[in-house]
Structure to design on (797 residues):
């Protein structure tokens, strides 16, 4: 009897918990960040014997130490945020768009190609509009391919979008070889360095103001679209249950294709911002893995645009800080990746404790955290 | 109970968090002080009080980047600059992150900034145009002279000299192999990074070194389209060995090719290798003959000393064996008898000018299709472009053939020998 009792009730078991009040859920997340900093502090000290506080300071310096660094952090945050915003509607619809990386590159290729060919003939404001439209269209077309296959033949979109990335990367390599400058450098180099044609103009004295303006407009737009528009509601219904959606008279195929077109068009726009507003060049690292990082951002924020801003900022700050500690303490890049990994692990792990509780044997109700 | 435990955990975390914050508050001035003291020390050490930046495409695991890091560090020491004032950014790809890092170094107070890879140059140039008070040096770059910028420079050692001498070492070994087996095809292979002048110049110099010993030798080149890709370099070496190459050399920065040659040798193949940048005997003890090496410290020191002393920093600076800027690594045990003597003779010939690496009498070319060079009926090059930076097939600055030899690295520091000579076949 006793034996069977212990057999059936393990020491710890996991159960879904009632939704936590919002304040408590955020408290858990903040605690997770604090613990992750402690754990990485222990890691830093045990491996490098460096003072963890000095390392954290250096990370902060790396992200915000100078006006210029702050703007680089903001610029890259906007890039990550823009991709995350693009992913949000697709993921909300439970359409696993793993292809942001490729959609960004396609938008980037379109922008770079136009910048090279029209740089001398079209004035920059008009060129910017042309490039923005081209990147939106190219991104949308690139993303609609897997969406159509999903809608018509139920092709697995996860694999499809993932594979499309590799095609986009190869296309980019091809364009880099085509536009190589100087020959042999395997790099397109800065496009229009003298005339700066097709570059984002300086606004309010800052080269990256326009990046912020565009992405924040998209942020607000996406918030309103997902929360208050009919289409946003359709996306939510399709995401929760396709059958319900069909029963309610929603054209699931059309919603799938339309949503994916919007999703990948915004990712294409991110490519435009990356090329025209930041790098002024194109390479296979233009997307730089942000297309995958954005998946984490979109999920962690539960598709809330404004929370995406915060999470993008956190992740980019960590990346910038990681680069700084690598150079300041002469650590290998990998050491800083470990720190970023630990912090992300705890943030993601905290979602577990928000959604589940651990019940200890013999205690009614159990406890979490 | 649940609440209590939660509260206890919360307070524990808060306490730790506070402790961490307190610690940071207490130690942050200390940390800042440290750096101030360090700078002050630098001034007291009477060395020049400048900050130097270095951008590397890989980290010290790549022999090429290690030679830059060592070279720059040695130059800094020689000039009495505090080593703490050298800021090194590693693993910076040849894209816009190079620009970001160059600007970041400038903002951090570096007054002279170096980058070590060819593809960095466009981004360095952009940074140079925005920070006219900071000197930017793109090592191995070739756009300084044509950039129109006063603060943008290029440096490059006479690597073709050390490649020629490493070719002599390979030639001696090849001669020994042929003596043992007269039916052996005098066939060498070369793993190249990218098909452009820097690589072409180096591989041709190596091949001419081989041919100075074994006149009937021929060579195949396999490109990897990467500066550092151990897997691709190993695969290229394997492909070349399977085609029958007895000696593999490389212009790529990893130990991929020598490792592959060692592995083939372990399986009974009679193959050897000539490396680049670093002594390859650690990964290929039985097959490494030698490595062509650059002593970058000579070039870094020249640029830095000009800069520190307020002299004009040259737009292009190049130095060779005469200035100790190039060398080959210690000869491996597998080298043929008499190699050391042949090496000494080659160096002496280069030093006194009796050996011109690109002596036009030592190679022939097919007639040019683009007009960038002229050959006579025997295929001997009589005239060649020095530079055609913009690819319009108009000679930009000067004739490269002087007194019966292609003069490398005098019109600009970066190599511009890109003739494809008879006897070398590019496979891809």
């Amino acid at each position: 009897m006793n034996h069977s009792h212990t057999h059936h009730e393990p020491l710890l078991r996991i159960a879904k918990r009632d939704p936590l009040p919002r304040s408590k859920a955020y408290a858990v997340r903040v605690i997770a960040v604090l613990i992750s900093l402690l754990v990485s502090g222990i890691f830093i000290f045990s491996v490098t014997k460096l003072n963890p506080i000095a390392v954290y300071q250096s990370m902060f310096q790396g992200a915000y130490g100078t006006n210029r660094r702050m703007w680089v952090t903001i610029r890259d945050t906007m890039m990550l945020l823009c991709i995350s915003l693009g992913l949000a509607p697709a993921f909300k619809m439970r359409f696993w768009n793993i292809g942001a990386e490729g959609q960004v590159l396609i938008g980037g290729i379109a922008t770079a190609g136009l910048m090279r060919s029209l740089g001398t003939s079209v004035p920059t404001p008009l060129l910017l509009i042309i490039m923005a439209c081209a990147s939106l269209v190219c991104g949308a077309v690139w993303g609609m391919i897997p969406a159509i296959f999903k809608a018509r033949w139920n092709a697995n979109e996860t694999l499809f979008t993932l594979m499309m990335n590799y095609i986009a990367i190869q296309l980019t390599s091809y364009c880099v070889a085509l536009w190589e400058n100087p020959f042999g450098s395997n790099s397109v180099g800065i496009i229009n360095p003298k005339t700066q044609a097709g570059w984002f103009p300086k606004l309010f004295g800052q080269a990256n103001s326009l990046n912020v303006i565009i992405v924040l407009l998209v942020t607000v737009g996406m918030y309103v679209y997902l929360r208050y528009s009919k289409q946003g509601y359709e996306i939510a219904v399709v995401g929760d249950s396709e059958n319900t959606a069909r029963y309610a008279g929603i054209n699931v195929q059309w919603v799938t294709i339309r949503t994916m077109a919007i999703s990948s068009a915004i990712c294409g726009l991110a490519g435009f911002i990356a090329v025209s507003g930041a790098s002024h060049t194109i390479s296979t690292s233009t997307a730089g893995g942000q297309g995958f990082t954005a998946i984490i951002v979109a999920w962690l924020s539960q598709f809330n645009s404004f929370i995406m801003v915060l999470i993008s900022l956190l992740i980019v700050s960590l990346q910038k800080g990681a680069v700084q500690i690598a150079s300041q303490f002469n650590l290998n890049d990998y050491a800083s990746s470990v720190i970023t990994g630990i912090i992300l692990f705890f943030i993601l792990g905290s979602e577990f404790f928000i959604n589940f509780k651990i019940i200890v044997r013999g205690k009614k109700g159990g406890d979490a955290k | 109970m649940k609440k209590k435990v939660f509260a206890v955990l919360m307070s524990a975390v808060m306490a730790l968090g506070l402790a961490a914050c307190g610690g940071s508050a207490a130690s942050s001035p200390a940390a800042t002080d440290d750096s101030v003291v360090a700078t002050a020390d630098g001034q007291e050490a009477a060395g020049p009080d400048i900050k130097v930046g270095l951008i590397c495409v890989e980290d010290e695991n790549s022999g090429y980047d290690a030679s830059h890091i060592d070279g720059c560090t040695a130059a800094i020491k020689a000039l009495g600059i505090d080593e703490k004032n050298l800021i090194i950014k590693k693993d910076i790809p040849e894209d816009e992150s190079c620009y970001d890092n160059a600007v970041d170094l400038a903002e951090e107070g570096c007054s002279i900034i170096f980058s070590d890879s060819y593809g960095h140059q466009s981004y360095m140039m952009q940074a140079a145009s925005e920070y006219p008070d900071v000197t930017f040096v793109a090592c191995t770059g070739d756009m300084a002279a044509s950039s129109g910028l006063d603060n943008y420079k290029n440096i490059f050692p006479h690597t073709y000299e050390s490649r020629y001498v490493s070719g002599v070492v390979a030639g001696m070994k090849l001669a020994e192999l042929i003596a043992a087996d007269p039916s052996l095809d005098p066939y060498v292979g070369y793993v190249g990074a990218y098909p452009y002048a820097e690589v072409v110049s180096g591989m041709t110099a190596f091949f001419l070194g081989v041919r100075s010993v074994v006149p009937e030798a021929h060579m195949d080149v396999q490109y990897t389209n990467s500066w550092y890709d151990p897997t691709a370099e190993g695969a290229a070496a394997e492909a070349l060995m399977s085609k029958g190459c007895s000696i593999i050399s490389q212009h790529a920065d990893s130990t991929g090719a020598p490792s592959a040659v060692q592995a083939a040798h372990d399986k009974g193949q009679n193959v050897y290798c000539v490396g680049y940048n670093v002594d390859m005997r650690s990964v290929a003890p039985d097959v490494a003959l030698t490595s062509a090496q650059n002593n970058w410290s000579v070039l870094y020191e020249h640029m830095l000393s000009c800069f520190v002393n307020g002299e004009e920093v040259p737009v292009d600076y190049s130095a060779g064996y005469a200035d100790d800027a190039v060398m080959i690594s210690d000869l491996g045990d597998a080298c043929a008898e008499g190699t050391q003597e042949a090496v000494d003779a080659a160096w002496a010939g280069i030093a006194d000018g009796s050996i011109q690496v690109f002596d036009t009498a030592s190679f022939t070319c097919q007639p040019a299709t683009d007009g960038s060079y002229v050959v006579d009926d025997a295929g001997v090059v009589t005239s060649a472009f020095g530079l055609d930076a913009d690819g319009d097939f108009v000679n930009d600055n000067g004739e490269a053939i002087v007194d019966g030899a292609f003069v490398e690295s005098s019109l600009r520091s970066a190599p511009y020998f890109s003739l494809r000579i008879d006897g070398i076949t590019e496979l891809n």
